[in-house]
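User: quick one
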Amino acid sequence: MWYPKLLPKSGSQPASPVDRSADVRWFETVVEVIEDLVPRVEVAEPGLAYVPVGGAVRYYGGEQVLAEKIAGAIPPGALLGLADGPFAARQAAERAEEHDPLIVEDTASFLRDLEIDALGPSELAETFRWLGVTTLGSLAQLPREAVASRFGVEGLSAHRLAAGEDRVPQPRPIPPEYAVESVHHEDPLEMAEQVAFLTRSLAARLLGRLARDGISPFRVMVEVEAADGTVRQRTWRSTDPFTEHALAERVWWQVRAWIDTPGGIPGGVVRLRLDPSDLSGEGRQLALLEPVERDGETTWQEVAIDRHDAERALSRAQALVGPDAVLQAVPRGGRMPHEQVEWYPWGDQPPDVASDAPWPGKIPPPSPALATSKPPPIEVEWDGGMPVRIRLGTRWETVLSWSGPWRMVGRWWEGEGPADRYQIVTSVGAVLCVVKDGRTYLAGVYD
Amino acid sequence: MKLLQPGRITEMSGLTGMGMTRLGLGLLAEPSQRAPVVVLDVKGWLSPVAAWEMGVDSSRLVIVRCSDPQLWPQVAAALIDGVQAVYAEVPAGVRDQHLRRLAALARARRTGVALRPLGDALPSGVAHLRLRAREVRWEGAERGHGQLRRRYLVVEASGRGVAGMTRTIEMVDDGTDVMRVVSEAVAEERQPARVAG
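Assistant: Done. Structure below.
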């Protein structure tokens, strides 16, 4: 069940990384309505929910009757699709009309004609298209081994989806110690900030506990108990196993939605529990072939590649050093090396910045590998405007050659004065200096 | 000779400014075509622009900043445990036993790790391959005119990665994503052991 107003199509850009608590709050009311008809609704995103309908179809006497019942009960704007598996159901919902649910009888033939973009906005889909594989049907016809060895786990997963083989949860017993719980009977949590902090630490605890056994969850049930004894539950699911960031975000959205709905969580939170299910160790499968160079010859060897390991490793690093110290960057325009970088925290959506505009006066490549936005002063001896010696650490080095001055006019309307840039070469390397108001600063090192 | 190998530590030493950071970033270019790669930045100066120029995929490059030598071993261990290729500056003051454990972890997880010590050299037995910048020469800049265009870097390679023989490699870097090896030579022939008899 899909609300396009809350969530874009799976083939388009993902929703912007804003706080979606308000969307979850509204969507929670919709999910409650559906749960009156069919139990065990699973929320994937604010605006997208999956409803396992096996038992309900028998109870209500048919898929069409059930779909019409759900459509009649929920607020307008929703699109409903029924198919085998979440991937096909979502694709069906995206192709349904309002008031006219799309019920897919033959999931394999339905998927066959879909454009390859149905896999989502990824480089993989673009590569398939470039290779002439434009539909899911043409992808499904390729030999699976060839796709797996060329495109890895991502390719394998795409091939399975295209062939109509959506993931089937492994029916395995889940040890009760996997669930994490935080109890506050004596001192209920009444401040939203306290609960927000708790959601993040519980998510980290849960995934850390599972990671030790090399598994991660596709589904997590969030359960909150209020001081008056009211218990609320909601299950969230994910196409890929949850990362710490994604899980913490969803748990917080959910709890926030309950806090903000009429009635809220009376008396504050006394217990918050996260119960994982649909656990998977597929991240650790030995499924990829990698070229290995040995004695000058390239051989193909099966190696363990875990697409989720890297995310777990970075999540742990983030927990140690903080989110502001685990960063990614995209190129942007600028004259100095530090200006050519737009940083963003790992886990966030990359910012949309233009980097192809011309920048006259830009420092040409090769760029210094070490650069800073806050250049420290450096001692340089000048003779008639020409650098003669430069102090690097504790020693003075003779300048062998240099280029500059390259004048850079600052934001004069903000009182920023002009500066001159120099590339200075010594016998132990080169540095990028800025001379401003008669002082020299070290802006970069060509290390 | 592959400078970054799965499960091995490559030590990159030399005076700051000679070009070892850029060479280390270049080692991440090929692994970044498949999976995320990480740079552990101690001084907070590392510029991704140089990494991009060396061919590192910007969407798969993550820079983790950690200047605390007490915390650094934990952060490095977390990264080596899950990421396929890591370039890490090593702050002064990290204990030898921690570095040995990281080497064992890299072996177990088959992670390729390049370590750039900012203080003392790595303890013996940690690095599979040691790369030491010996000489650097720039072309392009003159007496005020021109601009830096090309760097010639002479690197000495030693350790088990070169079967115990010290090799001298000259590389040229012109700001593109290829750092070309222009010459390679065995610097020191092994002398027969002297025997008194």
